[in-house]
Amino acid sequence: MELGRLEYLQALVTEFQVTDSAEAKEQVLANLANFAYDPKNYEYLRQLQVLDLFLDMLTEDNETLVEFAIGGLCNLCLDKTNKEYILEANGVEPIINCLSSSNEETVVSAVTTLMFLTTPQSRPQTTALPVVECMLRFSLSANRRLSNLASLFLEDYCSPPQVEEARSLSKHTAVGIPLPKD
């Protein structure tokens, strides 16, 4: 007998919760992140609290779990209900923390997620000075994908005075978020 969509997603969530295998957790989280791409699954994923699961995984030491979790959030946050949930769950801070990852996919997903989460209400948080400074650094990266995305963030989501303030601070400090490895 074929499982319905909700039952299948429930089985994945249950497997994630009960398995002790790091590899199995990674595989299940990757599957959930892929299912988060389809708007048909949004309601089911909310019902199964997968947004909370993704948010919880952002602070894990396992970089692969973080990569899949931020990828899942990135897929989900174009939906207005999901966006509001992530913002209300204080999800911006752990997403910003993903900018310091050495994993390129994690950083790209984090930048994209911040873009998708930016609203007039969330803008002070998503474009806070440390984020703008980080985007300035990323815009100088030899990695074209990252530099283009960061430049787009600076142009479309930040005001010129924000960028200038971050630029002036960046000139006076050697401290910064490291660029991800290629």
UniProtKB/TrEMBL annotation:
Gene: Armc7
PROSITE patterns in alphabetical order: ARM_REPEAT
Highest taxon in the source lineage: Eukaryota
UniProt name for this protein: ARMC7 protein
InterPro entries from the UniProt entry: ARM-like, ARM-type_fold, Armadillo, ARMC7
Pfam families named among the record's database cross-references: Arm
Ranges of the ARM repeats in the UniProt entry: 49-91
